[in-house]
Amino acid sequence: GSSAFISWIFAKSITNSSKQGARYGVAGGFGYAAWYLSFPAAAIVCYKLRKKGYSSLPQAIHDKYGPTSALIFAGCVAYRLYNEVWSNSRVIADFFGRQTRNVPHSNGQGTRTIDASDGWWISAILVTLLPLSYVFLGGMRSSLISDAAQTVVAVIFLVVVLVAIEIDRNKQNDLKNWATEGSDKAWNMFEYEPMQDVSGLSLKGGMDLFALGAIQGTLSYPFFDPVLTDRCFLAEPKTMARAFTAGGFFAAWFIMLFGLIGVHGRMLGDCVNDGVCSESILNGASLTDVRSGAPAAVARTLGVGIYSVVAIIMITTGISTLDSTFTSVAKLAGPDLHGYIETGKPLRLADATSKHVWIGRIAMITIAIVGTLPLLDNPAELDATTVAGTIVSGLAGPIWTMAILPDDWIWQGTRPLAFLVPVILCATIGICFRLTTAKDKHGDLKYQRAAREIDFSYLDVGPGIYRRYLGINILQACLSIIATFVFSLDWCWFANDDDPHHDYKLPIKAKVDQFCSDDADTTDTNGFEHNTIDIKYNEMEEAKAGL
């Protein structure tokens, strides 16, 4: 439970929650927490797959949709892991140096770009190298052990920060007078709404963000994140499902509470901006950054001690995410991809050899380098969630279908197009949309021709900031489900009704039901983590051979 909890308390998620809190009030943190519906979604899907005898998500996709689909899925996973490197190292680096920013010229015309400081780059690189070094040597076991300690540190320090904010607020008489002087403001952070005359329960007030997170979190987002799904196959199935449900609940609350840091920053910044509070209360922090809810800037207003505590929270959560990322990269490159090259299908962790370990280690070094390069373009942290989730939204139909349909309803053999068509179709839509919004480090559109010629405005839902994201994701969810249904029919192209498991399916399922009810312990083979079901799967293989 603690591993699942801390592995999804990303440094970039904390930053996003804080910034959304500054933008929408408590509705911002609540909206971002919608992505944590990924926990129960992953628990349900993986529980069902394990009851059907699968020991990993790639194995299930290979079995029901064929080897090409498994390879495309690996590409989706690699894209996710690539995003996790730069998005988490970036927010930690903000505590140790100046990030790239665009500032207005002195004459008020246009902006100029100030590149990130050397300290910023050094910290971004070091925070990537630290988890890489111990996961390189210790495998997933080192990641799981560190997760428990990191969970305790993160929770205790969040409580300390929230208490410090409340103490600081009670000392700020000017802030209190400003917040209580009019009917359009509120002293209570849970009631404060930064957007005047806009309800937090409206689409414009942040509910479009919540709807977007709920759609992605329940349908597709969890399945291309091996940091989450790898852990779904470690413990006994029922234990896993309970741990993920509880872990997701507490992780969502953690993220929502961190949004209050952004709410406090917005209140403080607005008070200074209105001329009621003195700028000295910012303690040298940028007014723009404080109002935007940047954790580093808000923490600076609370003094050196709290600034250090928030920095520790960010470092702890960032390193936890990065070590899990590198572990997942090793599994993807070793047993999954190299196993596919060798045998035509992903290998089980129990079959991993020292060769797969070294392939995984090389892949970890590669992703650490490649995943740092996007920082040259100064991307926004939220892009790693909204953009990435939009591009892979086609996973919804295929994965939910093979998990929840009873064995008597689902097809025998493989249906490649039932996976490839929805995934590629939705990825094409997502990439086209990204071409219309991507910006360079100067804040200018990178693909101006695409922005002029591709129009998605007719898909807008409501007047909110995320109206287009929401409309596109609704369309993609519908397309994914419809395409999966159509191309799973037995008359479709490339449909294969030959089920290599047909002869032993029932006895194997009976064994799986028995094994899934047993307690599982954890062992480590060549740096990879697996559980009892992986080991006992060998007994199922023997049963197959005897039938």
Describe the structure concisely.
This protein is mainly α and 547 residues long. The protein has helices at 2-7, 11-24, 26-32, 38-51, 57-65, 67-93, 118-171, 173-180, 203-219, 226-229, 237-273, 287-292, 295-301, 304-343, 354-370, 383-391, 396-404, 416-437, 448-453, 467-487, 505-516, 532-545, and strands spanning 101-104, 111-114, 522-525, 528-531.
SS content category:
mainly alpha
* Integer average pLDDT: 84
Taken in chain order, the helices and strands follow as HHHHHHEEHHHHHHHHHHHHHHHEEH
Q: What proportion of the residues form beta strands (DSSP E)?
A: under 5%
**Treating each run of at least 4 consecutive H or I residues as one helix, how many helices?**
22
Low-pLDDT segments: 501-512, 518-547
Helicity range: 55-70%
**Gross morphology:** globular
Straight-line distance between termini: 39 Å
Rg from C-alpha positions?
24 Å
Strand order of the largest sheet: 1-2
Main sheet characteristics = 2 strands, antiparallel
Number of extended strands: 4
Secondary-structure blueprint of this entry?
Blueprint lengths: L1 H6 L3 H14 L1 H7 L5 H14 L5 H9 L1 H27 L7 E4 L6 E4 L3 H54 L1 H8 L22 H17 L6 H4 L7 H37 L13 H6 L2 H7 L2 H40 L10 H17 L12 H9 L4 H9 L11 H22 L10 H6 L13 H21 L17 H12 L5 E4 L2 E4 H14 L2
Antiparallel strand pairs: 1-2, 3-4
Helix pairs in contact: 2-3, 2-11, 3-9, 3-11, 4-9, 4-11, 4-17, 5-6, 6-7, 6-14, 6-18, 7-11, 7-14, 7-15, 9-20, 11-13, 13-14, 14-15, 16-18, 17-20, 18-20, 21-22
Features:
two-stranded antiparallel sheet; disordered C terminus; globular; 22 helices; 4 strands; single chain; 66% helix; 547 residues; mainly alpha
